[in-house]
Amino acid sequence: MSEIPQDISHDQYAVRLKKLQDMRDAGSDPFRASCEQTHFSAVALQAYVEGEENTVPVKVAGRLVVIRDMGKSQFVKILDQQGQIQLYVKKDLVGEEAYVAFKRLDIGDIIGAEGTLFKTKTGEVTVRIEKYTLVSKALRPLPEKWHGLTDAEQVYRQRYLDLIVNPESRARLMLRSRIVASIRQTLAGRNFLEVETPVLEGVAGGSAARPFVTHHNALGTDFFLRIALELRLKRLLVGGYDRVFEIGRIFRNEGISRKHNPEFTMLEVYQAYSDFRGMMDLIRAIFTDLCRDVIGSFEIKHAASGEMINFAGEWRVARYFELIDAAVGFPLSALRQSADYRAKATEAAQTLGLDVHAGWETFEIVNEIFSKKIEPTLIQPTFVTHLPKELCPLAKLNLEDSGLIDVFELCIGGMEVAPAYSEQNDPFVQRQMFEQQVGDDQQKMDTDFLLALEHGMPPAGGMGVGIDRLCILLTGAESIRDVILFPSLRPNEAK
């Protein structure tokens, strides 16, 4: 057994270490290997039968978060996964020696307790303890809720403390789990197969993003952490898996912001013999199930504007260039094939107060107008359709206008939540689009994916949903860090 550290500066830490040593000297193990638990807190509260005092036996376990000493008895509360439950500890019930030991417990200690349910004079369902066990001694004191976690980064760096003292964080992050579970259930009900694809890729494909690079020693080669799930899942369409999805971690070596984390969670789903309009039906079904089964309402309040977002009404469908023309105040889209297009787009962007980089392509200038001046205004669910083909080389070209692609970007709450495409399945067009994207750097082209397409891929609709952004929207969180259990942070230098 390792020695207890002697360089103690924190008073409470020193007191708790002394208690720990006293327990060990008395032959007691303060760190048990297991503890029987028959009820979570919420389940135990529901098990109480009105008028039947001390007849329902329960075994509960959790962390001490409240202690009220009444002399010969104590009312305490423990915290488990489902919340808090009150325990009543009395010397006459547990015995004098056990009661004295109980009074030496500290806030933060983890205990197991068994007893029966009753209701106090104030109407609170409580466990009348007959026996308890200290299963893990807390050597560090918990922070106070409002004063202990004053450093904003500490909330994320020591998430375990945040989850203990801040019920809002616990509820938000538990809601995230239920959101993901609901999505899985919706897709399973529509005969989609959940699959897993590699995180390590030889080619960073499926999106235009900077990858993280790692090295595999045994193979003597570099790999990229995946930046998208798309190209692997489409290979499964070729292989005869007609409806597939994956909820997986994506890694992009780019900036950090309120909406961006270097690693994030994506849902990507592909349905053979469908198209981007079929994906409209699917995403609405996902939201319907989420609102009904998880959120409990078809209206939520947009945190930034205070506007109520209505998911039950009609979802707007608007063409990309119709929104652009309305934003700039003249028919910019009519100039797409003219020599003046770039100059007019630049002028329009600058008139709107946007900076235009000299090296930007024209479509990038136009998209800056959309992302900075249009997207933030789209609070109600809006399908923005028929984007410029340069924005996604993996989508089907529009039959009426080959400069556009059959896609939508679903915008809600002023941000993109889900892009979807009619997937490109022509290997010749796909190769041409890839070549335009990668330019002279042919090593960035996924030639194996092109080989797969040459074996025949059925027409398909595909969609991506950023799980983190979805959770921001549905929980009212201020930042992506608030909906990720352990967001990426700059390493904290060891003292």
Q: What is the fold named in CATH at topology level of the largest domain? A: BirA Bifunctional Protein, domain 2
The overall strand count is 18
User: If you compute it from the alpha carbons, what radius of gyration comes out, rounded to the nearest whole angstrom?
Assistant: 29 Å
Question: Which consecutive residue ranges, at least 5 long each, have pLDDT under 50?
Answer: 1-9
The total domain count is: 2
Average pLDDT confidence is 92
The secondary structure category is alpha+beta
CATH architecture of the largest domain: 2-Layer Sandwich
Count of individual helical segments: 15
Fourth-tier CATH superfamily name of the largest domain: Bira Bifunctional Protein, Domain 2
The dominant shape is: elongated
Q: What's the arrangement of strands in the largest beta sheet? A: 6-10-11-18-17-16-15-14
Which sheet architecture does the biggest sheet show? 8 strands, mixed
Share in helix: 25-40%
**Spatial separation of the terminal alpha carbons:** 25 Å
Strand content bin: 15-25%
The CATH class label of the largest domain is: Alpha Beta
Would you kindly provide a written description of the structure presented here, covering whatever features stand out?
This protein has 495 residues and is an alpha+beta fold. The chain folds into two domains: 11-136, Beta Barrel (OB fold (Dihydrolipoamide Acetyltransferase, E2P)); 165-315 and 380-483, 2-Layer Sandwich (BirA Bifunctional Protein, domain 2). It has 15 helices and 18 strands. It is elongated and about 90 Å long. Residues 1-9 have low confidence and may be disordered.
